[in-house]
Write a structure and sequence with these properties.
With 153 residues, the protein is an alpha+beta fold. The chain has three helices and six strands, in the order H-H-E-E-H-E-E-E-E. It has one domain: Nuclear Transport Factor 2, Chain: A.
Amino acid sequence: MKQITTALLLLLLTCTLAIAQNKNEEDAVKATINLLFDGMRNSDTTMIRKAFATKNTMQTIAKNKDEKFVVKTENVDNFIKSIAMPHAEKYDERIVFTKILVDANLASVWTDYKFYVGDKFSHCGVNSFQLFKDDEGWKIIYIIDTRRKDSCN
């Protein structure tokens, strides 16, 4: 009976440690994504660049002039330059983490968002992130988002 109790306690301890470690990884993943959006709000290109891996991809799904959905690819360096350009209003993307999955050095994250220019609502959608954990920590390797102006509960 003692052996069964000991085995169950060890199993419980192992599960608890695994859950705690996964929670720490999720928090680190969130911190990287928050670094990106804090950098956007503060026009801090150093913060933004720190959130991205050297090799990265940024895309958006949006309607073109013919009202057809298309995938547009944006250069991350151009995105960062656009944030660095002086602008009167703050770019404020307000996100809600809805799903975080972590396996070893890969993380997938889904966030709902609402984007504001200053206090004025601009659009909403969903971000999908892929992150890679290297020796420096979690880095964004891929972002794709949707953009719309309606159904933004």
